[in-house]
Write a structure and sequence with these properties.
globular, acyltransferase activity, transferring groups other than amino-acyl groups, Aminopeptidase, 415 residues, single chain
């Protein structure tokens, strides 16, 4: 058997098409309840990367047949010793050395670019959950990757929402949020809020559980937010935002995001939800998520399920919110998510390679699982982290966003 690996970019349409077909087939096999592998998103990953990110792509052929591809993202603004990776092998051509060859190729590139860690994601099955491919975990173990962060994909069945109970939960929460009001918008953030969104976005990795993932908070400003929006617009993400505005200061102090991809109108990802530490304890997170759910469903009536990825440590919080909102978030199948970035009892884990490199939808996910990669995901999926002894990839925290239309609504239609 002969394995060849060649780099490619967006100008090589044949290679792009071959890589897309590999990714689409792997998605259907490994994540059967996920939306179809989105061609628009895939092309945008190549042509319109996130700001401050350099992307390297390579295609592997086995005896001349396209067999796998590699995507390496090299942060340029922060985390300059880290990288994220997505390594995908066609399901029919696994266990023939293609993944190992791509791994060795990636390790060489990572060392050439001074990277010490690489993060990736892989799918795993949860105890008592649906069967999932063990290929990602087996490959990670064979390359010396270590599990650094586990996340569980949870799925909301929109048809199971008890709207009467949800209205009651909101009525109970709103008195604690006196002095705050909600604002919502679609797509591009209104200019008056972009600085506050940058502040909240920059706090995400400060507040989120990272376990053994060595990933520093990103330095986010208004220009970076605008660059992220352009990249997410190119990917076709229809984004629905809701913020909580502090009336005394005029600042947005809480923010949540739901988004829908171009390949499936029945599926959404719950992406970021964050409350500024100085304003916690007012039920702002619950109010924002519940009202944004209504915002989404008003404009996307075809949505049937919403996936999200959360660390197992947040299980108590999820039970609390699910009960108060009467929304059934059930653990779901895990896997790499395009949540740019989750299902019945599934989970994902981030694997780390030290001395080497650490990955997005390629991160190892422990099935119980998106995330959703929703996203971002950022892009969203399972995670695998490896140290530079071999490879590692940073956690899949990208979020796909697509500009739909700009506009702000003071207040949100009530349930």
């Amino acid at each position: 058997m002969s394995i060849t690996i060649t780099s490619f970019d967006g100008a090589d349409r044949v290679a792009v098409d071959e890589a897309y077909r590999i990714g689409s087939t792997a998605n259907d096999v490994d994540l059967p309840d996920f939306p179809p592998f989105c061609r628009r998103r895939f092309d945008a990953l190549i042509h319109t990367p996130m700001p401050g990110t350099r992307s390297l792509w390579a295609l592997a052929r086995l005896d001349g047949v396209p067999a796998g591809y590699l995507q390496l993202d090299l942060p340029q603004l922060d985390n300059t010793e880290n990288a994220t990776a997505e390594l995908v092998v066609h399901p029919d051509l696994r266990r023939r050395g293609v993944g190992r060859a791509l791994h060795e190729y990636a390790a060489r590139l990572l060392r050439e670019h001074g990277r010490k860690r690489v993060v990736a994601m892989a799918v795993s099955a949860l105890p008592g959950g649906p069967a999932r491919s063990a290929a990602g975990d087996a490959f990670a173990a064979a390359t010396g990757a270590k599990s650094a962060l586990a996340e569980v994909r949870r799925r909301l069945d929109v048809g199971g929402i008890d709207r009467v109970a949800l209205r009651a939960a909101l009525a109970e929460a709103r008195p604690r949020a006196e002095g705050y009001h909600s604002v919502c918008w679609q797509g591009t953030t209104p200019q008056e809020y972009v600085a506050d969104i940058a502040h909240l976005d920059g706090r995400l990795l400060m507040d989120a559980p990272m376990d053994d993932v060595q990933w520093e908070p990103e330095q986010v400003d208004a220009d970076r937010i605008r660059g992220n929006e352009r990249a997410l617009d190119a990917r076709g993400r229809r984004r629905y935002h809701l913020g909580m505005r502090h009336e005394a200061s005029g600042r947005l102090v809480a923010w949540t995001l739901l988004d829908v991809g171009a390949s499936a109108d029945w599926h959404a990802f719950q992406q970021i939800t964050i409350v500024d530490p100085a304003h916690r304890g007012h039920r702002l997170g619950l109010i924002a998520k519940a009202e944004n759910l209504h915002h989404l469903l008003t404009h996307e009536p075809a949505v049937r399920v919403i996936d999200t990825f959360t660390p197992p440590a947040t299980a108590t919080w999820w039970r609390s919110t699910s009960s108060s909102a009467s929304a059934r978030w059930t653990p779901g199948p895990t896997g790499s998510s395009p949540s740019d970035g989750h299902s019945r009892y599934c989970s994902r884990s981030v694997l780390r390679h030290d001395g080497g490199h650490d990955g997005d939808p390629a991160s190892p996910v422990r099935e119980a699982r998106r995330h959703p990669q929703p996203c971002a995901d950022r892009d969203h999926g399972a995670g695998l982290l490896v140290r530079l002894s071999r490879i590692s990839q940073p956690p899949g925290v990208r979020r796909d966003r697509r500009r739909r239309r700009q506009g702000r609504l003071r207040g949100v239609p009530r349930w």
